[in-house]
Amino acid sequence: MIDLYYWPTPNGHKITLFLEETGLAYTIKPVNIGAGEQFAADFLAISPNNRMPAIVDHAPADGGAPVSVFESGAILLYLAEKTGRFLPADLRGRVQTLEWLFWQVGGLGPMLGQNHHFNQYAPERIPYAIDRYTNETRRLYGVLDKRLAGRDFIAGDYSIADMAAYPWIVPHALQKMDLLDFPNVQRWFEAIGARPATAKAYALGPQVNPALGAPLTEDQRRHMFGQPAR
After folding, report:
1. Residues 10, 168: contact at Cβ < 8 Å?
2. Residue ranges of the GST N-terminal domain (predicted)?
3. Angle ∠(152,107,24) on CA atoms, nearest 5
């Protein structure tokens, strides 16, 4: 039913978390971003920003032609509306969930992504950039920790807001964050990690990319970072 264009990155994991929770039938179409497959013409036809994940739904709700969706937040919202799951139906619950979904796609993901880049991948250490993004990461963890005080999950029940945020917290050690400093985040993180669907979703990573975690080659860096407009 669903073709998932995927590589095991935080944004890719968001979608496998949802699909494994709901049991929707899906087929993984690997997009090896280190090999430049995100620039292939057939992929750009469904993901014009040359980023994965993307999906093609071959059984959309209107019964018409297949629907393609790019951008991980848009995909989560599409799938939640398709299945009627992990997005509250009531007005206030829906608003809160979407607020925190967009908080992740607009803030948590981009800022932590820059943290990863300057701490892990940049060819030279730039102290200002490292401090800037490490401090912003710490601030965002603090925002999430406050939100989770007295709550099991970000917006009430487990939702697409949690699925969006969790994969970006998984590499917390690489972000120079200690979850002991954020006890509510730690509790939430452990609860999601214990879900069977989470284990299934993350088991896909090394299956799709057996070299997961290996240092990047110069060719992989060239494909992944600093692409010009073309």
Report:
1. yes
2. 1-87
3. 60
Q: Tell me, rounded to whole angstroms, the distance of Cα 175 from its chain centroid.
A: 16
Cα–Cα distance, 40 to 61 (Å, whole number):
28
Question: By C-alpha distance, which of 113, 90, 223 is closest to 168?
Answer: 113
Tokens of residue 98, six digits: 């979407």
Quick: pLDDT tens for 57-95. Answer: 999 999 999 999 999 999 999 999 999 999 999 999 999
Contact 67, 114 (CB under 8 A): no
| CATH code, domain carrying 111 | 1.20.1050.10
CA-based end-to-end distance of the chain: 32
Nearest one of 195, 206, 208, 205 to 21, comparing CA atoms: 195
Q: Which residues make Cβ contacts (< 8 Å) with residue 185, sequence separation at least 6? A: 141, 144, 145, 148, 169, 179
Q: Which domain holds residue 117?
A: 91-193
Q: How many residues does the chain have?
A: 230
Instruction: Enter the pTM of the model.
Output: 0.95
Is residue 218 within a helix (H) or strand (E), and if so which, with residue range?
helix 218-224
Distance between CA atoms of residues 45 and 90, nearest Å:
35
